[in-house]
Amino acid sequence: MFARFSMLAVVALLASGCSNTSPVLGSKNISYGDTKAVETVTNEFGSTDLQMIAESMTRSLAQSGILQGRPVVQVYDVKNKTSEYIDTREITTSIKTQLMKTGTARFASDNTDMQSQVDQLKLQNQSGLYKKSTVSKTGNMVAAKYRLEGSISSIVKRSSDYKDVFYKFSLQLVDVESGLAEWMDEKEIRKTTER
Amino acid sequence: MRHFILGALALVLLAGCATPPPPEPGSAASKIVVMGKFKGIAVGAIRVARENGFLTAKVQLSNITSSNQTMYYRFAWLGADGFPVGDEETWKVLSLYANQATFLPAIANLPQAADFRLEVKTP
């Protein structure tokens, strides 16, 4: 009896010793990294470039003093004039998000959101499905005072030893009524790879 | 024996002096956080101002070596309570030529920022 009990105790002890107390499940080759780290895996447009551009542009615009009284801004897509595929919408989304957090501007539905906005208004007003008192009325959308538009271009040079990529990101805030550019800034990035 | 004791005492006193005093609150040194290694670059004057509601800073950096240096940096913006405001900044790279001195400009992420720390690191 004692021997059987001892055996069971030893098995239980071994089993508890083997149990995984780590909150990690899976391969040790996969790890989570710092999303804010400087990424130099290749010299193509990367996460650090996107974050640096968004940070630099947002702060320059927010601190410029032009956005007095939280004006309504319409964001246009950034024109990609580089030879690479760059999801420029992510740049504008980051700029928009960061500006929104500063509380200095409000944003009108941009070209991609507009269809959803119109569809929702039509659905609420024309379908007859909704209680009248809760329906959002048409004709009350707020028009943008400014439009924010930009472009990204690159100059790529290669030799047998080097590859040099120079990115230039430009952003401007234009007064819709007057057509005047009220604010403008640029961010330049140089990335060189030595073979 | 007396000489030995005096020598030991002097050593103990010197060792005590060798520990740098902690930076005074509000001083330029108190705003710099060295992440691991930071060699060959000296941090000089810091200018802080509030412009259009946002805290702005300019930090003087000098390469004190005769070779080009690279450093990594980011600003951490703090509220009046000393706690971080907004999201963390991305790390950035700065290249300094031999003996070059430059000013690092920065604008706070949010109007609520009242202070900052500059996190620095050399490769």
Which descriptors would you attach to this protein?
heterodimer; A: 195 residues; alpha/beta; Rossmann fold; 6-stranded mixed beta sheet; flat; B: 123 residues; mainly beta; 4-stranded mixed beta sheet; 3-stranded antiparallel beta sheet; globular
Helix content of chain A: 25-40%
Task: Report the sheet-strand fraction of chain B.
Answer: 35-45%
Low-pLDDT ranges of chain B: none
Oligomeric organization of the protein chains: heterodimer
Distance between the termini of chain B: 49 Å
Portion of residues in beta strands of chain A equals: 25-35%
The number of helical elements of chain B comes to 1
Helix content of chain B: 10-25%
- Quick one: how many beta strands of chain A? 6
Q: Please name the CATH topology of chain B.
A: Immunoglobulin-like
The CATH class of one domain in chain A is Alpha Beta
Number of strands of chain B: 7
Query: What is the arithmetic mean of pLDDT of chain B?
Result: 88
Q: What distance lies between the first and last C-alpha atoms of chain A, to the nearest angstrom?
A: 73 Å
The CATH homologous superfamily name of one domain in chain A equals: ABC-type transport auxiliary lipoprotein component
Question: Order of strands across the widest beta sheet of chain B?
Answer: 1-7-4-5
Number of folding domains of chain B? 1
Count up the helices of chain A.
Answer: 4
Structural account:
Chain A: InterPro entries: LpoB. Chain A: This is Penicillin-binding protein activator LpoB. Chain A: It holds the Pfam family LpoB. Chain A: One of its GO terms (cellular component) is periplasmic side of cell outer membrane. Chain A: Keywords: Signal. The complex is a heterodimer of chains A (195) and B (123). With 195 residues, chain A is α/β, with parallel strands linked by helices. Chain A has a domain of 126 residues: Rossmann fold (3-Layer(aba) Sandwich). Chain A is built from 4 helices and 6 strands. In chain A, strands 1, 2, 3, 4, 5 and 6 form a 6-stranded mixed beta sheet that branches. In chain A, a hairpin with a 5-residue loop joins strand 5 and strand 6. In chain A, helix 2 runs parallel beside helix 3. Chain A is flat, with a radius of gyration of 27 Å. Chain A starts with a helix and ends with a strand. The mean pLDDT of chain A is 91. Chain B is mainly beta and 123 residues long. Chain B has one domain: Immunoglobulin-like (Sandwich), CATH 2.60.40. Helices cover 14% and strands 43% of the residues of chain B. Chain B is built from 1 helix and 7 strands, in the order αβββββββ. In chain B, the strands form 2 sheets. Chain B has a 4-stranded mixed beta sheet with strand order 1-7-4-5, with no helix packed on it. The N and C termini of chain B lie far apart (49 Å). The mean pLDDT of chain B is 88.
